Amino acid sequence: MALVFHKLVSVNEALKLLEEKLGGIRPLGVIEVPLLESLNKVLAEDIRAPIDYPPFDRSMVDGYAIRSFDVAGASDVTPVQLKIVGKASIGSVPESHVGPGEAVEIATGAMIPRGADSVVMEEYVVRKGDTLTVYRPTAPGENINQAGSDISAGDYVLRAGTLITSREIAVLAGLGISRVKVYRPPKVTVFSTGVELVPPGELLATAKLYDVDGYVITSMLNELGAEATFKGILPDSYDAMKSAIADALEKSDIVITTGSTSAGYGDMIYKVFRDLGAELIVHGLKARPGKPTAIAVKDRKILFGLPGFPLSAMMNMYTIVAPVIMIMRGLEPNVELPKVKARLPFRFPAGRGFMELIPVQLVQNVDGSLSAYPLMTGSGSVAGIGLSDGFIAAEENREYFDENEEVTVNLFSPSLRIPELNIIGSNCPGIEVVLRVAGLTKSSRVISVGSMGGWIAIKRGDADIAGTHILDENTMQYNVHMPKIMGLENEVYIYRGYARRIGLLVKKGNPKNIKGFEDLLRPDVVIVNRNKGSGTRVLLDMKLRPLLKGERPEKAING
Amino acid sequence: MALVFHKLVSVNEALKLLEEKLGGIRPLGVIEVPLLESLNKVLAEDIRAPIDYPPFDRSMVDGYAIRSFDVAGASDVTPVQLKIVGKASIGSVPESHVGPGEAVEIATGAMIPRGADSVVMEEYVVRKGDTLTVYRPTAPGENINQAGSDISAGDYVLRAGTLITSREIAVLAGLGISRVKVYRPPKVTVFSTGVELVPPGELLATAKLYDVDGYVITSMLNELGAEATFKGILPDSYDAMKSAIADALEKSDIVITTGSTSAGYGDMIYKVFRDLGAELIVHGLKARPGKPTAIAVKDRKILFGLPGFPLSAMMNMYTIVAPVIMIMRGLEPNVELPKVKARLPFRFPAGRGFMELIPVQLVQNVDGSLSAYPLMTGSGSVAGIGLSDGFIAAEENREYFDENEEVTVNLFSPSLRIPELNIIGSNCPGIEVVLRVAGLTKSSRVISVGSMGGWIAIKRGDADIAGTHILDENTMQYNVHMPKIMGLENEVYIYRGYARRIGLLVKKGNPKNIKGFEDLLRPDVVIVNRNKGSGTRVLLDMKLRPLLKGERPEKAING
């Protein structure tokens, strides 16, 4: 019997429920690691400087350590002569003391000898044997980096909860800290489920699909700083599934499965979670894509059953898994995706009771602003995952996004590479070929929105080129009527691209002896159709019309 | 003898020279790795889809596969009855064929049985035994995800030179690709040099410093996607240094040393590079910080001798090492640091013949805009490295940045956490204590610009609170005269913070029997002074003035 999602829970409610049932989501524990291994982990202790930095007064230049009072009147015409009494080298305590009328040669970074209050740069002196002639005065403290001037012993330099990057490592190393207390990154085990799944690299039988989720979820977890292990596709047997998940739960903080959560058939995951003694706290999420989601907790561990469609599973990673991972790592729950502002090219419904994450492609308008084209590929798409620059989020109480509305785009990459050439409209594999020959593949972007969408993109200033094949039924000519309709007369050029040869593809040897369109009407012939509205289908329907004598093609043809 | 930088080379010239001498900087080679290991590597091949995606027509919903023509007129009042002839399950080729008046039960993702042209959702039907009552019409293609509609076999889906993130992994997995050709990441060996250096964790003798560079450079390289190995501090012997670097050069694509490049004393690195048979192509860089830099090439390998000051070494990493690493990885040379626009709070000199990278701290002004406070800490600072949010770059031909000039800030972190409370002015360790007690450490930022800088920050709207101790010599009162001077009357509140007790710290037992300021004039007494301009020094000078009877304190006191 089909399982129905009786009570959908919002993403925020789900996080609150998790918080409640776990007695708070929090960092998992503290480990001590060598400094270099702390990179990209989160500091679990406040760091107070154990020493001054620099630990001693040091010279900032190559020159001579002197007493500023001695050279108070020095100039090019009234130079002052000092006696060189020694040398201060890097890494050693200087043996010489600088008395009145004396100087000590000193290197950048060397310790200032006692008695000196400044360093004169070697550019402003002339040395002859032990005699130094100084042509400039110095101020007390000049060219001296004073002990503790950068960091004083006891200063709080880094706070618990700081993500350790190379910069934090610099500060820690400078203070002599070789081992660091960090939060232990969460251990996550990932499984795919689904009888239809085949691992990439193996042969794909009909009606089967390659497993995407296991790979993308594991990679995302690694990107999020978790320690993720992918354990492959779970066998389609209750017992095998249960024992694999039980074992994973033993060894990890979080177990994530994908697939087998939709209400239709495979409700096995819910049963396995429950039978493992976990409390099912979410059973359907008010998220689109991402509704068929199960969340269960056992002791302080979490089981996520994510939907099988890759885009759905990924979006759930952003909305509900990532915040949990972030908190467990010791960070704030919001994932640090970079953001840009963009405007939407058209109005479309979004939200309507669900938190909806919509992947978008960005293009730069002629006026320099950004437009975000929603990828209407559906959650079953994998191409859309690769094509999108980021996503926009619709809140639950939103009904639609308006044309030209300004939205915040969460970027997948920190820096946005704006394509120089935007080709928006009806798509054709030939465009890719042309771009490759022209060496433009990296600097261009092709967005498929159909012929009409292309004309609108030209009108908005988003598109540089639009592919179009719109038939004017009055003149039976393509495209040339459009500039007038769009108010773009004298503003666009229409170039004839190329013609297509369209034919019927038959089995080798043409066993059914198909000669023309009339054969398509035979009951023993099945045709694989192009979708309605496509140019080919329009042509086919046109050609069939006289043969059908008023009958609807859907009725007369096995398509 | 001191080594002088005779001919400084700009960063761009240095990159051009590298390009020339290496016969082009380019990716190092191609390796094939399992899909999950390709994360964060760069694709070395164009990927054409080997299969359609989806590979078969599949249902997008749970429901029944039907012929749309059969239910053309279906509605709540005129439902249509169909005969259920089978079931299409996920992962199997459906055994049943949908003839006129027939339906096949189907799950989301299952293959569409032959004969059906659409799927009616289970919400719009009622099933009784083998009879299906349909209350809604369907359009041909409805709820069907057509084979190849997402990706057609032969489509170019990913291009060589693409950084592989979790999203690219999703696309590759979906197409069944289990092993990927990627560019081999560059192998880099890192050494520190300097007799003054001690590894963090060991005891620090006087005049010694903890090694920062080895740790920060290695971490930065790992962040940049190179395979970096830190081999510690090189011994201070020509032979040992030469053999260690020769060995590293054998095993790596790039060898980086830090320190021993300044013109004063330690010119050992240049000699070692040359004696290893490498051609020294850069010997001094028009970069600030970062001038004392050596670059040499041997065969197709590069030796970088970076300066010893951590900030100098880091800035060179951004300007010259990172572009080389990026190209060798197969990416564009520019490092993908996120950027924001900000305005500068005051005018300051920058550039003047050098490419200058200036670390900045960002604060949000009351009007919502960002101000970038340059960290004037000097290249010897390590605190500055940790405190800065990013850096601004001054081109060689620039003379200064102007007050309120808009600049682009290259951010160290992808997302900027704007502190809620900005405390800008004269600093005091007590502020940190107060913030900790108040639980405000995470949401606040303390920027030290001195008392006057604090007043200017208040005036600009950057600072919420400013620490100040400016004495009015006319009234001998602190701070209360400032609002009038700044034109901020009735706009600021002055709260009295706390008073300091100032004293003289002497050796245990006070062996020199120091009782007061007059003892400081004794020739056998040496005082460790606060810097000129500090409140304490002003007080000390004031107290000494009557005792000195017109003599300058620098002359009368051993400071």
Q: Give the CA-based shape of chain A.
A: extended
Please, how many helices of chain A? 12
Q: On the 0-100 scale, what is the average pLDDT of chain A?
A: 86
Tell me the CATH topology of the largest domain in chain A. Answer: Molybdenum Cofactor Biosythetic Enzyme, Chain A
Q: Could you give the distance between the termini of chain A?
A: 32 Å
GO molecular function (chains A, B): molybdopterin molybdotransferase activity
Organism (chains A, B): Acidilobus saccharovorans (strain DSM 16705 / JCM 18335 / VKM B-2471 / 345-15)
Pfam families (chains A, B): MoCF_biosynth, MoeA_C, MoeA_N, PBP_like
Keywords (chains A, B): Molybdenum cofactor biosynthesis
How is this structure best described in words?
The structure is a homodimer of 559-residue chains. Chain A has a six-stranded mixed β-sheet, with no helix packed on it. In chain A, strands 16-13-17-21-20-18 form a six-stranded mixed β-sheet, sandwiched between helices. In chain A, strands 19, 22, 24, 25, 26 and 28 form a six-stranded mixed β-sheet that branches. With 559 residues, chain A is of the alpha+beta class. Helix content of chain A is 22%, strand content 25%. The model of chain A has no long low-confidence stretch (mean pLDDT 86). In chain A, helix 3 packs parallel to helix 6 and helix 4 packs across helix 5. The longest helix of chain A has 20 residues, at 310-329. The first copy, chain A, folds into six domains: 11-27 and 185-329, Molybdenum Cofactor Biosythetic Enzyme, Chain A, CATH 3.40.980.10; 30-53 and 150-183, Alpha-Beta Complex (Molybdopterin biosynthesis moea protein, domain 2); 58-145, Molybdopterin biosynthesis moeA protein, domain 3 (Beta Complex); 339-411, Beta Barrel (Beta-clip), CATH 2.40.340; 421-486, no CATH class; 501-559, no CATH class. Chain A starts with 10 loop residues before the first helix and ends with a helix.
